[in-house]
Specification:
Radius of gyration of chain A: 22 Å
Mean pLDDT of chain A: 93
InterPro entries (chains A, B, C, D, E, F): Ferritin-like, Ferritin-like_SF, Mn_catalase, Mn_catalase_dom
CATH topology of chain A: Ferritin
Distance between the termini of chain A: 16 Å
Organism (chains A, B, C, D, E, F): Microbacterium terricola
Shape of chain A: globular
Low-confidence stretches of chain A: 306-316
Order of helices and strands of chain A: EEHHHHHHHHHEEEH
Helix content of chain A: 40-55%
Number of strands of chain A: 5
Pfam families (chains A, B, C, D, E, F): Mn_catalase (PF05067)
Oligomer: homohexamer
Family (chains A, B, C, D, E, F): Belongs to the manganese catalase family.
Protein name (chains A, B, C, D, E, F): Mn-containing catalase
Largest sheet of chain A: 2 strands, antiparallel
């Protein structure tokens, strides 16, 4: 069973809208090696896991899988913010955007010359479950052979490829909003790569100097270096509300990446970052409330909620 | 940010393996109107949500979306259990299964005459991210127009269709394991249908006698009736760890289904059911640990975990 | 602009339900060489047609394309009838079907052992836009190079392949309902093959003894022979309401198939067969009207329609 | 059975070629909420319709479905015209285009920098059965649950989403050719939305102020306003050649959109607009007739057609 | 540049037709981890290879990739033979099969109850480029990151998964024809796994007891044991006509699987097995030559070929 | 069984990087009518071929199919070279590319404004198995009906369409590297078109003036004319190592294209062009060897290979 808090797993830096960067980031969300894929792959591996004797491996996969849901939330929001307001931002007068199409205005014509026209036409300047060339995410991406060593080996390769692509993404844009999320995911992919590499060590592999794969030297990227200095590549959170995870039996000892750090699974979750709601975009008819609807909404908002807080007893 | 507890959202009844039922249930997991779809649709709608003034609607969608992740876990596990051990169960002697292929044995030949051979060939008697005819789940299923009324209308239709299909699934099998999950999801789909119907009421629609859509009279199904008697069709949990959800401003008052109940959003989550790990299946080489691996695993299991429990301070 | 009459293009014979035959027929509806494909291909070729000097070729393609819409209607209805009532027919007592799922009955369990479970689970014992292995129809099937000779050559190959597959379908089932439609489409595919072959003759090709391709000798099939005796393989209707089609400039002279007949484009359309509406299927909740709905429907039905008939002036 | 007249359902305004607008319009043709989808969805719903007592609902769906075929023809032709001649138009000298590739000329290099290179490479400056990011149309889009209320609810949502996307399309381009078709489809989508909303009213729903969904206030678009002033949003044609449609039993009374109009189903079809054939494009080898072919074609054109007009007795 | 000899890379044992086994084998041909995938992945990795200093790695991948084309030929032919004649074999009288459909016979009705009806309906009892549930092979399967270590790691995982699936296939059928090819591919996958594991050893990884992954102990399968006894799991052929391959610089030394063998890259290719052509199948109209065609073919066959053998100077 | 030589089937001219041309060429590689398709179609037709009496037709298809593998290699390499170094070439300073991302540099930002971002993000400036709009190659493209005449007719249409698209590609770019491969493939497609047309002649068709289809008059393209002057459109190589091909029984006599040449099947293969390995691209981390890896690689390279050349006895 899953729970949610209204916080992001990491802070998203502020910068100007950038639809091209938004589209590139789609690969990290809905691409073959993006966050939707890691999330789904680890959830299915957890669901179908076999071997009561090897619970620590399941807990490791389950914990990383839970984190990936938050990564979907993080990168999806980043894409949404990179798109948000881009028609107005690109030099359009505010009036036509406020009065969409009035007298024949073309407030959305930016969409014709963008990475994915669906960002404006199908969605309302928001993230889509597709990759950077518009292919929808597919269930055929999920790998779950049921053989423990193979699944771990695949997961290692998956995290390594995800990190490689994110390093390339970093090189494609200098938008700070995009880079803050890219850099965070590079470091967390590294942590997950360490987790699967360490698990394979417990099953016999010796990596010697091979890790990390690939050797992108991402510490050359300033935002990445700042996170590595905090040791985020060597931590794994449990995201487990009742502390039953045994992932720490695996995720401990010297990092297989040979960077001199020690793996640490002692924390439940990182401190979250505040979550806000995006503004109205009238040219997208989103959320599209006219005066009548606004009156109805106001009436709803004014209602007294049942005193539900008192009942939140178990966890809060 | 998301968290997990090692419990199922509902108990799965015990019964014998049943691969045909397992395959039918795949529609409820990876089908166009299954749980992966509702989960992803609501997550994207939450991520891309617009309108700071309409937060209760976002919170409603977010809360249901979080529940859907637990539904994926529930139905995925149900499929896995329906498949688990089916080769042996179907009259095969235990020896060939314990010694896969030895001397030319064919312990997996059940797979040639089953709904989806991938259950045995690609997975290891486990759930797959596909529908009941083997089509992989697709990101193109996700609907998120950004217009609030349209998104709510779509969500209502989605839950109604999901419930219709589950009623048909109920009519296809009398396996108790399958039916316990089907029945639970019928009732929860009804709750979500009520949630979106109620939200549309706050925005102006009057349903009169139209709901529920469709009128399947699922209370004719005994397992469904038991859950309706508990009022589960009129509750919506928040799954929100820090009680910030305002969904209760919408999910309250008389049920739009006209069944005489009152909508109740006062609970955080249902009591969970215990989670266990599936046994080894040697004919699938899953998890596939030989003696050497078992020795290595035992060494890992014997390690003392760092005393991480004390650090679980914020939520537990 | 298109019009409809409430008649089928050919009569569908009566026989018992046969879900296996229904599923095989899906190839002829939604398969790569089925009727949805010919329909869409010819519609796109008509829309994108170039060359004011070659209007007869456009008219030929447009006329065949219009006929294909009626073929979609015919084969779709045939599939629907082959499925209709199959759960009850296969030895189930009528009660559980009339009271779906009551007391735990399993009226739809036939669906678990059928060609495509979606026929019962996603649809309500009706046709689907998929092929015989469940692949959805795809726009990537449509061929429209814009080069006239190539498009005609492709169309010839397409009709020939469609006819080959339908001859194989004939060999797969002896259900009379299925065979009446299969046989009609074999003969009409032959007519279309003649049309494209004749068009290529006007552009220089001499077929000599090559046609028909392939030589399936379908006159061995009694139902086919009956239609060939009527000359249906050598007629092409215009389906053109205002007689502007010039297709007859091409579709005339000796048949390129060398069967001694003369091609004839003089008729607008065949006589139609009566159209009826399928009965309710309660186990599918289709159409699903309960008493309240039935009362509302009855009220609608009792309304006097505006006297619209008088206004149907132009064409009737 | 279907028929055709060589007229468009609406006139297409004249303007200059505009490949970017053409590509955006592909969403309205081959997109998930475009005309191919509505057409196929309503055709399948008509074919699989259940309930002899509810024939007016079938007739309503059948009539709209027939109209959608004409919409496919209209928007497909609009795309074709927007593409037609664009290489020459964009400042290329006429000679290289007339003599494609002669001496190494690059008359099609515009294709490298356009929305969908397939418009020039796979097609010959014509419409494709794909959406605006190049995804082929898929049969998986079609929804037909068999439950009447659900199908109507889905259809309402489908028309509303189609209209929303077309309003966004209007905001993306000011090309008059594109806008004439976009505007016509906005108003017709509104009519269909009214049809399904009205049908749901007869089944119990009261929309009060909710309609239209969404409230795009498209009358701000001048071309749309002109059509609304004519009342086109409140008419539904039967497209039924023999006046058997009972759709008027539903489509009558005050418009559910609350615009003060009365729904009117008394007309068979609108007056059509003349249809012409696109010119040759030599750089596409389309239609590609050289001198020898032209001589053969001329010989065909000179043939006397059989006197087929006299035989067009039933309808003309 | 590629060449062909009219020989199979391994002999296919004789046994009776078995369409269920044929369909299972499709996973090994067109599945996500089948031979079409390995073939295409290694061809693309060879084409896009970077690093003049690391030519031995390219040569290793190229050599295995060339072998995979022969594997496609081998498993495709095995499937074709498993299907060939199955309608007649399953107890059908020979007459209806020889005279397809005559007097209404149903010689192909086996197709309605088989793994993939396309084997009889779209193909003519032959192999298809799809997996065992009918999904077409997809270019999205191909992995080629460009990073050498990652590509090798992926290839290792790919071969290991292919071998795992083939071990499961072995357990599904005891048809000797199927098993001869399955067993050969198990052993060759093992050889390729050794090749990529050895390549990773040269780049720093120490596998210790981990290999093979997974530990299926396939030597329990008698046909596999026979090939292992010949050492086929430790050989890699170059398939390089002019002996320029440097793969032997990598594929040498003790096998990383720890079976006591030494890797050997000294042979160009194995001895081939004779290739024959499948017989006519009249019920499939394949090849479909009637008397007239046969006469034409005989005339062609009687022609004297130009004396081309003398010109085969370079290689033979 | 297949073999390889380390040579290209034709020389690739030198020119500057051109990512737009590279992307257009993807249609010729992974498009529906590209080289991957012809290769796979002919391989499957060879594998499934029926009719011992018609071996020359099989040999013809097999020989062309083998050539197509070399075409995949040729066009794939051409795309790779067109992409190679493009970030640096487009005016980027060399330093940031040599030190990817150092201090926040954006060496790959060209990728955001290119035909397919995957060329830089998923691949490492290399070819992909997709078409020019990014659709992955699909097994559903392969046509193999089993009927000889139909398969030959389809193959003729396939080669003709491939040639048509390549003529359009020629008109899209004047990059010499792109055009050298485009022109070669135009002429080879013509040869294959002649082969299938000639085969159909032996089965009864008389083409008269129809061929080539379409009449693109590609000799207007200077690079094409040079190859036609060499007669390459009228040669077919066997690519058969042991001279067992009987394709020459068909591919002889006057060319069906009516260009006055005589078909010639006497050569085994063309002279090949030298093959080189692409340089490192540090901004792609490809191949990604750091100092430690380079030392390990150097150690491997220094090893003495076993004296394998002497063993290459059969063919060299």
């Amino acid at each position: 069973m899953y729970f949610h808090v209204q916080e992001f797993i990491n802070e998203i830096a502020e910068d100007e809208p950038d639809p091209a960067a938004a589209n590139a980031l789609q690969e990290g969300l809905g691409g073959q090696f993006g966050e939707m894929r890691t999330m789904m792959q680890y959830l299915f591996q957890s669901i179908n896991f076999r071997g009561p004797d090897v619970k620590p491996y399941k807990d490791l996969i389950q914990g990383i899988g839970t984190e990936e849901i938050s990564h979907v939330e993080l990168i999806g929001t980043t894409i949404s913010r990179l798109l948000d307001g881009s028609p107005q931002y690109q030099g359009k007068k505010s009036d036509p955007v406020d009065k969409p199409g009035a007298a024949g205005a073309v407030p959305l014509n930016i969409a014709l010359d963008t990475g994915n026209i669906h960002h404006y036409l199908v969605g309302a300047q928001g993230a889509l479950p597709v990759d950077a060339v518009g292919n929808p995410w597919s269930g055929s991406y999920v790998y779950n052979s049921g053989n423990l060593v193979l699944d771990l080996l695949y997961n290692l390769m998956l995290e390594s490829t995800g990190r490689l692509q994110k390093c390339r993404l970093y090189e494609m844009t200098d938008n700070k909003m995009a880079r803050s999320t890219i850099s965070y995911l590079i470091v967390r992919d590294q942590a997950h790569e360490n987790a699967y590499a360490r698990a394979l060590e417990t099953l016999g592999v010796e990596w010697r100097t091979t890790l990390p794969i690939p050797k992108t030297n991402a510490e050359r990227f300033p935002e990445v270096k700042a996170l590595i200095d905090l040791g985020l590549q060597s931590k794994q959170y449990s995201f487990d509300l009742t502390a039953q995870s045994e992932a720490g039996k695996i995720f401990q000892g010297a990092s297989p990446s040979g960077d001199g750090t020690t793996l640490d699974a002692s924390e439940q979750a990182p401190a979250g970052a505040p979550m806000t709601i995006s503004p109205e975009r009238r040219e997208e008819f989103s959320p599209g409330a006219d005066k009548e609807l606004q009156a109805l909404i106001a009436a709803t908002a004014a209602m007294e909620m049942a005193d539900i807080d008192a009942t939140f007893g178990r966890l809060s």
